[in-house]
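Re: the 763-residue chain
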Amino acid sequence: MGRLIAVLLAAGAMLASCGVTRRLPEGSYLLRRNVIETDRTAPRSERITTTELDRYVLQSPNRHFLGTNLYPWLWAQADPAKQTGWHKFLRGAGEQPVVWNPATTMRSVDNLRTYITSRGFFSGTADAWVDTLRRKKVKVTYSVTQGPSSHIGSISHTFRDTLLRDVVMADSTHTLLRTGDIFDTGVMDDERVRISSLLRDKGYYNFNVGHISYVADSTGSATNGRTIDLDMTIRRNLEGYTEDGTAIYGAHRVWRIGQINVNPSYDPLRNAARGAGAGDTLSVSGLNIIHNGREEVWARLLRRAIRLHSDSLYSASAVVATSSELMRLGAFRSVSVLFDTVPGSDLLNCDIRCVPALRQSFGVDLEGSTTSSFYGLRATLGYQNRNAFHGAELFDASLTAGFEFLKSSTRKLSYELGGNVSLTFPRFLFWGAEASPRIRKPVTTLALSAGWQDRAYYSRTLMGLSWGYSWGMRRWENFTLRPADISLIRVGHIAPEFSEMLDNPYLLASYNDQMIAGISASYVFNNQPRDLGAGATVLRINAETTGNLFSGLVHALGVKPVAGSGQYKIFGIPFSQYLRGDVSFSQRIVLGDRLALAYRLQGGAIYSYGNSTSPPFEKQFFAGGVNSMRGWAVRTLGPGTVPYVKQNYPAQRGDVKLEANVEFRFPVVRSVGGALFFDAGNIWLMRSRPDEYSDEAVFRLRTFARQLGFDGGIGARVDIGVVILRLDWGIQLHSPGRPAGERWIRRFRWTDTALSFGVGHPF
């Protein structure tokens, strides 16, 4: 069977290739592949990478699908003379064949040579050669030689506007140009941008990078022109021309903010007809707010978001922050911050034009899932109001309904119905901490949820209420605090076969009626840059405690525990009492072009006490699955060395989790990447439960290392533009659930592997 599939794929690839190339004009060739060869003789620290060079190659081949020309083949099947739906689909799904253009190849070589020179390799060269392949296809190979690098010698400054000297030189410790660095025009341009930004934040509204230029001198170099002295010239401001066309230059002026006019309901078409300032004006805290008979957005909210103040120095950073804060409110589709000079003064009048976002919207989301044992369908109807009470609040409501069909159960159908309502405020409620200048992006969220589940093995009613704050501090840090997080779980029934399936009082207790009420907090450090191919470090810490307030109340009020169970109840429902914490640290280290080493260390623990004999099963830890131990299916590993008994509903959970993951990511073809991975970890119980688990399920420092599960495997990553689709195949290398002496892999068995599909990288 496998051989037949391989033959069919090979035949399909040949037909696709022939179908494309035979339609090409005589003497034309399909560009099959570009190869870029970097200069391996250059020091690694100075070597220009393939990714950098690829940006300057002007012609790229068509995308490949499993090594075939599927996309241009689809395009070729469409008839250009027909505009029917089928032919439009073929053109949209395919790609027009990329016909190799020799002139474009030569321009690409010129681009590469120019780029190498701009990086300080003045004797560098670039070349290309073309290999003709079978069936009218070509491969173009670009090769670069960098040669010796040129370095910066002395650095001097010439200030035509002498008033700027003190401002620029006071910040010279942050300069990007250093004696001895490679002569890189890209870095020189970045330095121009840095100085321009510095001055524009100091009130120099008209200053731009065009006022800065360089004079490079290598005539005094004793190293064959490879040491270059730089002189940076900062010119005066061009103020106009005389009648005979002579340019008039003057000192750069410092500007201050004059009037600030804000239109929170700006309509480009309506205001163009009536005038930009049409409408009533309300003056609040230095803002002139234009409105059309009612206050669309609270004035105090606008004042908090706008970082500009009358009579203060102009600051480009404050302008960017104003635009960003106004957009963060979520009530506006776009924001424009414009300035006009006031004749005869040093004032700039500011107009802030906010185009409102679509205030109300509805959405429908359909979800389908299937495996060998079940299939399901879920539909969600959502409603959003982005300015519910004129304070840029986001009101979000949704209703979800779904069903599942379980083949292996005596009761085939399961149903689910639920709803969620949340209100998000772009500020802190009941808490004045946002007054601190260190707080950024403060948000308060109030949420209410309710749901009903009628599954094959049990039925439940769930309700939730939460009140939380989130905010940022420094650039990469974000905090969340939930002073109130309440969940109510009522179990309607548990099928006898489900109880027999679990056959464990500890697990069964986690399916009882429970009320969860407590406080939780989290901290996230994430320095992931916009370039997803760059290195990154992510640290997540979560902590929560529940039931302590209820415990204090029942003891203070003298409430007696329920006879038999010994538990206290609130409204007839026992409340949970536990402490839970988890931490995760992950890092991605870039090794080269689309090469990276990523790893993650994570651990967590939950401790039930007081009114709880076991934590709720939603709060317990599990191992296995798409983002965990990828050699095991979800919830089939642990706790400790407890063997897994195959069942329809895997339910291996624990109080402690330790896990480490590492994977090497590498390119395969264009948008497809691969990964080799290794995982180690397990779950355990916090304390001994001799009536429920053997002693080997308990976490102990002296034995946990021998109880770790190990797996390894290979994966594929397909970048479709919007998301990354992931397929991982893992094999168990050390299975702690097997009898002693049989835990290390000795022979390959399909039952010791797992195939998982996910979206995005696992960490």
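The two ends are 36 Å apart (CA to CA).
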